[in-house]
Design goal:
By secondary structure, the protein is of the alpha/beta class. The protein contains 15 helices and 20 strands.
């Protein structure tokens, strides 16, 4: 690894046999091409790239403990959102958004499956459990198809629960609808990766397929880190960098190693360590037994991918639509889906909001990780738009209006966070997606059932 006139390419990487470690944003890195030329001529710095991410949670939420009572700035955080206290100036709560195409519209039951398939597409799914599935392209893939060539990976699709694209998972709807939120086209669901090891290897793979496989096998056998394979390249680079960049690079590489070690510990877990979890949800090798650990490792994969500009588009399903996962780690042994059919029972309400609060704790972890990484004049979170929510409002009512939606980050200046924004009832959620695409530099006439862009995300 060498510098040319003190400048590294934005896509500079550390290389080893079958290993490719992308660099984070360093002072010595400048964008190339027209953007750098124009910036140099104007005497200004090139702005960091913008990213977008989407996190899906199933079964709706307990809305009375989700929705702030006041609008605008300075609202009191309701119980479910309290884990975000330290981040209250970094997100907006959006109330009043709806997904009309998540409703039956003549197709009968199956709201859970529709809630996932419509979440990012805004398209009515065809009711079938056969091969003739049909939905629509999802907003993340609209962005990926437009800007994906600028990064190593056009997009990253992650999840916590495995899914399948065949069979009947909800009242005659294919499992493809329940298991996926990313769609490359109306008949093309994009399967998610649930194994942190597989995502890690994908992010740090380099060389030919044979070299990548050989590297992984050697590292496993010798118990070596990916960083051991790029150590020589890293040492050369460290000597060529300034003090601030050396510190940044050291912190980044330390973080990569810590994540790798957490994955290794998960792989070493025995069946005895899994306890009852193994009965309810079989845990493959490489996936932590604890749900919290699993989610946070996947969050770290998103952070690494964004930090190294390996992709600018990511999605993650915290569970599949209609998931009946128990949450014993927080004292809720009941299945989530079963609880969502609460029938007004106060005891079930208490458990649902506890699950919702737990999910927000994981979101807070991701946002704090993004916020902890300086980039340009701000942080990685400042240059990201992250949409968190569900395709259902209340799991018992199976309604698709007044959806629980949270938008975090500043999108590089496109969003003024820290507010509760209440929109008129039945405002299409796809209006939000149109605005997000426009902020990413991907102008579109419409998306799904949108009626325009979503006003009010920027105060002035």
């Amino acid at each position: 690894m060498t510098l040319h006139n003190g400048i590294l390419s934005r896509r500079s990487i550390l290389r080893g046999l079958g290993v490719s470690v992308c660099l984070p944003m360093l002072d010595a890195i400048q964008c190339s091409g027209r953007a750098m030329a124009a910036s140099t001529a104007a005497g200004t710095a090139v702005a960091p790239p913008k990213r977008m991410a989407f996190l899906f949670v199933p079964n709706g939420v307990h809305l009375p403990d989700w929705t702030p009572k006041s609008e605008g700035y300075g609202f009191e955080l309701p119980y479910i959102l309290q884990p975000l206290e330290a981040l209250r100036d970094d997100f907006c709560v959006l109330t009043g958004l709806a997904h009309d195409k998540g409703r039956a519209n003549g197709d009968g039951p199956g709201d859970h499956a529709r809630s996932a398939s419509v979440f990012l597409t805004g398209a009515q799914p065809r009711k079938t459990d056969g091969a003739n599935i049909r939905s629509g392209i999802s907003v993340d893939q609209v962005a990926a198809q437009a800007i994906g060539s600028q990064t190593r990976f056009a997009s990253l699709e992650l999840g916590i629960e495995r899914g399948q694209n065949a069979g009947n998972c909800d009242s005659g709807y294919s499992c493809a609808y329940s298991s996926n939120i990313s769609w490359g086209g109306e008949a093309t669901p994009l399967g998610k990766e649930v194994n942190p090891r597989s995502v890690f290897e994908r992010l740090f793979a380099g060389g030919t397929p044979t070299q990548v496989d050989e590297s992984q096998q050697r590292r496993m056998y010798l118990r070596k880190s990916v960083l051991d394979f790029v150590a020589e390249d890293a040492r050369r680079l460290q000597h060529a960098l300034g003090h601030n960049d050396r510190r940044k690079l050291d912190e980044y590489l330390t973080g990569v190693r810590q994540i790798e070690q957490r994955i290794e510990r998960a792989e070493q877990a025995t069946a005895a360590d899994l306890g009852d979890v193994e009965v309810d949800y079989p845990v493959p090798s490489g996936i932590p037994a604890e749900y919290r650990d699993h989610v946070r490792l996947m969050c770290d994969m998103i952070v690494l991918a964004f930090q190294t500009d390996s992709t600018r588009v990511a999605t993650m399903m915290l569970a599949n639509a209609g998931s009946n996962r128990p949450y014993r780690e927080i004292g809720v042994p009941d299945g989530h889906h079963d609880l969502s059919h609460h029938g007004g029972d106060a005891a079930k309400h208490a458990k649902i909001r506890k699950i919702n609060h737990f999910h927000i704790e994981q979101l807070a972890y991701l946002l704090m990780r993004l916020k902890s990484i300086p980039e340009g004049e701000g942080t990685l979170l400042d240059h990201t738009m992250l949409c968190y929510g569900s395709g259902l409002g209340d799991g018992d009512r199976h309604n698709h209006d007044n959806l629980p939606v949270l938008l975090a980050g500043r999108g590089g200046g496109a969003i003024d966070p820290g507010r509760h924004i209440r929109y008129p009832d039945e405002t299409p959620m796809c209006n939000l997606f149109v605005s997000m695409l426009e902020s990413m530099g991907v102008p579109v006439d419409s998306h799904g059932d949108s009626t325009g862009s979503l006003r009010g995300l920027k105060v002035s």
